[in-house]
């Protein structure tokens, strides 16, 4: 499967942030990593801010798609929260690459996080419809903690501990519905 130039740029931007840090996150460095000219990069992303916005939008879209694809039975709202738990856990294991745009936005312009904030508000609306919204919020924030601890390099749990934590969170979901 071939990826589009735009996808390659986003992948390369995440890779630069992951491997070289935010100080090396420049359009020149991303273009070099993507194997294209800076002019080619600028054709898709006119400046660093638009590139970060692209990273954020890609992260939100990918995360939402993964949650929705796992949510096979719309009549069981608990599936959504279980999918959320599993996706945060999966991201903490294998997919921090799509999350590095969040770090770039936090460091450069927090207004770029608006799509994430908007999506999180939608998720909280879903959570507020549960029988125990406070417990559901605790579960969602615990999941966020797993993913963000890994992203920030603060993860101290081994895979066994994380798996047990996820299992327990999924068990708790039953109390929310």
From TrEMBL:
InterPro entries: Homeodomain-like_sf, HTH_TetR, Tet_transcr_reg_TetR-rel_C_sf, TetR_CgmR_C. The keyword Mitochondrion does not apply. Keywords: DNA-binding, Transcription, Transcription regulation. It comes from the Bacteria. Pfam families: TetR_C_28, TetR_N. The keyword Transcription regulation applies. Residues 3-63 form the HTH tetR-type domain. One of its GO terms (molecular function) is DNA binding. Residues 26-45 bind DNA. This is HTH tetR-type domain-containing protein.
